[in-house]
Amino acid sequence: MKASKTEIKRKFKYGGFATLITVIFIVAVVAVNFIATGLTDKYGLRVDLTADNRFEISKESKEYVKGIDKDVDIYILYEEQGYKNLNDLYAQAASVIESYGYANSRIKIHYENIIENPSFVKKFPKLELATGDIVVSCGENAKKISPYDMFEAKDDNTIDSYVEREFTRAILYVTSGQATKVTLVTGYNSDDASGFVDILENNNYEVVETALATEEIDPESKAVILFGPKTDIPEEAVKKIDKFLENEGKLGKTLIYFMSSDPLLEHMENLDALLKDWGIEVGYGYVYETNGNNIIGSSPLAVSAGIVDKDAAGSVADKGLIFAIANARPINFAFEKDGNYETKTLVEFSSTAAVMPEDASEDYTATAEDICGPMPAVAYATCSRYSGTTLIQSKIAVVASTVAAQENTLKISSFANAEYMRNFTNYLTDTEEGVYIAAKNISTDTLIATESQKSAVRIIFVFVIPAIVLLCGAGIWLFRRHK
Q1: Which of 25, 14, 4 is nearest to 481 (CA)?
Q2: Residue ranges covered by each domain of the chain
Q3: Which of 26, 171, 240, 318 is deepest in the core (most CB within 10 A)?
Q4: What is the mean pLDDT of residues 23-52?
Q5: With 0-12 CB in 10 A as exposed, 13-18 as middle and 19+ as buried, what is 323?
Q6: What is the per-residue pLDDT across 393-420, written as a single tens digit (0 to 9) for each?
Q7: 50-76, pLDDT tens digit by residue?
Q8: Quick check: 446 pLDDT over 80?
Q9: 179-429 classified as CATH 3.30.420
Q10: What's the pLDDT score for residue 43?
Q11: Rounded CA separation 70/137 (Å)
Q12: Sign of the C-alpha dihedral computed for residues 474, 477, 480 and 483 taken in this order
């Protein structure tokens, strides 16, 4: 049976319409893909579905980077595609580095193949550069980051990435032009200060080590740090600290003393005498919490303390996080004000805190008579004078236990300790608030999305896309029905 002209015309009409719709759809898909690719390349419009956002920089870094008003250049000394294809570690590094450029257009990312262009290294004669190194520069300031700085293999066969930490640190350094120098005293069987030092170096501090037995404290240092010495500091060494704080009458210096939590801690008679002159008295028992609500875990010696001075705490004071401390020593004040000296509490144990005696038995339980809180967990003293009309001060801060600033404590994001230690040191040294960046473990092979990311993906695929398809179908049906 031969089709009529009307039927042929109708089939041609609807067939042509279907073909047109198909062509438009294909063109739209290509256009959307082209636009999305361009926007991704220019603005970093991408979704990181890992729980710890290991392929982009943190909110803290973004906020800091946005405020930079200088041109920063990041040179990766490798061919671009080859660098990203070396392995998963370098792919992660490249993604994180590119995030800085997306956060601030004044940060430019460059790939330089120094095998093909060996003269490039002459731009930075003070740096010993090799293939794979990265240079962060701003004006005349430059800092090298090697692959060994960015990754660390752990004992459990996992790998921690320090890419964001190193680059935020480098950008802070090259844009500020000068680091705050502090002196870490070595010897005296001191506790491991590496976690606290990481906090400082991550925020543009230069940490120099000094043995007081044979060396003087660098006069350019803003602060001297005693991190958990367990043997008494000789009188001559304490005199060096006192001389540093006096600073030829100009003051402006700080002592930060973390008391060791070790049960073998000696009585620090020489150092204690200096502290007492400033109004701070330390004891050698342990702070024991009698209220279970203030205990972290199961031990009454591991407790949460309250931040009471917001100036020293900075931005973390309003975040509602716990300041954790364990095996803390009791601290009291000899006076609130005496001549040029004043004392105050920065962080405080609760009113239900007791002091466990130094010679207490293993089955010790606090009694009502032992309760003597509140008492300082972080004590602060100042010596103030006037130089003309300008107030000048030297400062001493005593933290009741090194546990508050040890690496394992600082890594716990639900604790305020990492941010507090950064802001507290900035406060003591009159340094602007910086950024704390934790390491990210990148050894997990499976894709782990957060609940919000899972919810977003579910909404898109279960509701949004089907709704778009239905609307398009309804539109086509209505269009054809009324033709």
Answers
A1: 14
A2: 1-45, 59-151, 179-429, 454-483
A3: 171
A4: 53
A5: buried
A6: 999 999 999 999 999 999 898 999 999 9
A7: 555 566 888 888 888 888 889 999 999
A8: no
A9: no
A10: 46
A11: 10
A12: negative
Angle between helices 59-66 and 163-176 (to 10 degrees): 20
**pTM of the prediction?**
0.69
**Are 59-151 and 179-429 equal in CATH topology?**
no
Residue that is written with structure tokens 């107030």 in the block: 391
Tell whether domain 59-151 is in CATH 2.40.50.140: no
Through-space distance between the first and last CA atoms of the chain, rounded to whole angstroms: 26
